[in-house]
Automatic annotation (TrEMBL):
Protein's UniProt name: Cobalamin biosynthesis protein CobD
Record organism: Gordonia hirsuta DSM 44140 = NBRC 16056
Function: Converts cobyric acid to cobinamide by the addition of aminopropanol on the F carboxylic group.
UniProt-recorded Gene Ontology molecular function terms: ABC-type vitamin B12 transporter activity; threonine-phosphate decarboxylase activity
PANTHER family (UniProt xref): COBALAMIN BIOSYNTHESIS PROTEIN CBIB
Membrane topology designation: Multi-pass membrane protein
Classification via NCBIfam families: cobal_cbiB, PRK01209.1-4
């Protein structure tokens, strides 16, 4: 009984420390957003890019080992951070989140379009997506920005918070490593079809639950749950990503717009299915997407903090 009681106290303290740290890290992201220099994710990406120069092989096995090494390294750093208590978890949370910057860039793009500054909007777009902005008109810019805000509401906030609630600081940083690797090498291109296969599949698995939680929150918090649900049911399965399609369809239905179509990347173009049944998004819809994203992010933080106390 005494040992069980002591163990229970340790579990409660660990869960409480994680919850406090995640709440503090989320608040820090709201206040400070992503640092312009020295962001941990940017430093991680630089290290990954440098190591890829001498480890790259057109091989699934090598790519899987590469992915496992970097995810393991990030999780190990998270383990060290977790031993520092709430302060360490707060630092890991702040490093893993990117939702505030996401919303601010979306608003800046909308403001540029409202003022007729198409070139200014194009210059901002690469901060959100990997598409060639020179080929996009106003509608194309808005569509790209809304799709990115929808997907990254899950990737940059909901998913890391879910993994933080489940596994603490190692979950936060391990997930961020998975998502960063997917963004860097998880392409369906001739170079990365094999080497990036493990990174892409790992990211798919890591986002299965968070993406659906994001879609559910977007549907409920938009005030149009049935419209969002219809779009997800009718269109999400046609998207090449098992997770992005769910989130983008939910946002399209919730906002009463349509997303998808031909998408031009640096590695080539892809014909994406149309999601939703409304008109193409404009600047006002981009602002609405930012507002919805912020509501979803806040709600997911509340769910994650409660979950951290319950799960650990």
């Amino acid at each position: 009984m005494v040992v069980a009681g002591a163990d229970t106290i340790v579990v409660v303290q660990a869960g409480t420390a994680t919850a406090i740290g995640m709440a503090a890290g989320t608040a820090a992201d709201l206040v400070f957003a992503d640092p312009q220099r020295g962001h941990p994710v940017a430093l991680f990406g630089s290290a990954v890019a440098a190591s890829q120069q001498w480890t790259y092989r057109d091989s699934r096995a090598v790519g899987a080992a590469f992915t496992a090494f970097w995810v393991g390294a990030a999780a190990a750093v998270g383990g060290f951070a977790g031993r520092l208590g709430p302060a360490g978890v707060a630092g890991a949370t702040f490093s893993a989140l990117g939702g505030t910057t996401l919303g601010r860039i979306g608003e800046e793009i909308a403001s540029a379009l409202d003022s007729g500054d198409l070139e200014g909007a194009r210059a901002l777009l690469p901060s959100l997506v990997g598409r060639d902005p020179s080929l996009l008109d106003e509608a194309g810019i808005c569509r790209a920005a809304v799709e990115s805000i929808a997907e990254n509401t899950s990737d940059a906030t909901v998913a890391p918070l879910c993994w933080g609630a489940l596994a603490g600081a190692p979950g936060l940083l391990g997930y961020r490593a998975v998502n960063t690797l997917d963004a860097m090498i998880g392409y369906r291109s001739s170079k990365y079809a094999n080497f990036g296969w493990a990174a892409a599949r790992t990211d798919d698995v890591a986002n299965l639950v968070p993406a659906r939680l994001t879609a559910l929150l977007a549907a409920v918090l938009s005030g149009h749950p049935l419209r969002a649900a219809r779009a997800v049911r009718a269109d999400a399965h046609r998207h090449p990503s098992p997770n992005a399609g769910v989130v983008e369809a939910a946002f399209a239905g919730a906002l009463g717009i349509s997303l998808g179509g031909t998408t031009v990347y640096s590695h080539g173009s892809e014909d994406r299915p149309v999601l939703g049944s409304g008109p193409a998004p404009l600047a006002a819809d981009l602002r609405a997407a930012v507002r919805l994203s912020r509501r979803v992010q806040l709600a997911s933080a509340v769910v994650a903090v409660i979950g951290a106390v319950s799960a650990r």
